[in-house]
Design brief:
Pfam families: CoA_trans. With 230 residues, the chain is α/β, with parallel strands linked by helices. The chain has six helices and 14 strands. A hairpin with a 2-residue loop joins strand 7 and strand 8.
């Protein structure tokens, strides 16, 4: 398991025009240290699969303002007014998916499926252009699976093998993203020796994780701060 010394080296595999998954709901469970380094990296044309694109001037929201994101695929873009403004200006493309559909599409990608049929969205604008199929008298639409070149995820604790444990609701989309990308980089608060984690608490097995970095930034009620200020 590769443990990177800094975020810059951890992001060497992230290139322009790639598709990346980024964990988090709002800023909770987001890999804030890795995102902060992305704001410094000379890249553009990214397709970002994430529940939302950060908040105004925070997290992925900074990348939106830097015009590094070409397309966002997610569920909750209205948490960041800058995303709507960029969309109205034609600076970003957005693909809106219901939250359960977003989660299932990533799960399908990690399970090796090409896609699946769902009732969610039938008869709405979200179904336009999508294949419909009637099964047992019920209309479904086809949703393709989602995969990415790189997934940037956040975990609470890891062992030196790369097994991951998540903290409460910060778990959100992170575990399924770990299964649905070619390269997975985990930002973690604490790294312990192999064998110290109970097998019962491990959510993401190490075989899904390619590298790790110790988190330098955390989210508190006062906002995003450096770890040493905690």
């Amino acid at each position: 398991m590769k443990v990177y010394e800094n975020a810059k080296s951890a992001l060497e595999s992230v290139k322009s025009n790639q598709t990346i998954m980024v964990g988090g709901f709002g800023l909770v469970g987001a890999p804030l240290t890795l995102i902060d380094e992305l704001t410094r990296k000379e890249i553009d044309g990214l397709t970002v699969i994430s529940n939302n694109l950060g908040e105004k001037g925070k997290g992925l929201g900074i990348l939106v303002n830097q015009k590094k994101i070409k397309k966002g695929i997610g569920s909750y873009f209205t948490s960041n007014r800058d995303v709507g403004d960029a969309y109205q200006k034609g600076e970003i493309e957005l693909q809106l998916l219901p939250q359960g559909t977003l989660a299932e599409s990533m799960r399908a990608g990690g399970a090796g499926l090409g896609g699946y049929y769902t009732k969610t969205g039938v008869g709405t604008d979200l179904a336009k252009g999508k294949e419909e199929k009637v099964i047992d008298g019920i209309t479904y639409i086809f949703e393709p699976a989602l995969r990415a070149n790189v997934a940037l995820i956040r975990a609470w604790k890891a062992d030196t093998l790369g097994n991951l444990v998540f903290y409460k609701t910060a778990r959100n989309f992170n575990p399924m993203m770990a299964t649905a990308a070619d390269i997975v980089i985990a930002e973690v608060d604490e790294i312990v020796e192999a064998g110290e984690l109970s097998p019962e608490e491990i959510v993401t097995p190490h075989l899904f994780v390619d590298g790790m970095i110790k988190a330098q930034k955390i989210l508190t009620k006062d906002g995003v701060i450096d770890h040493e200020q905690k």
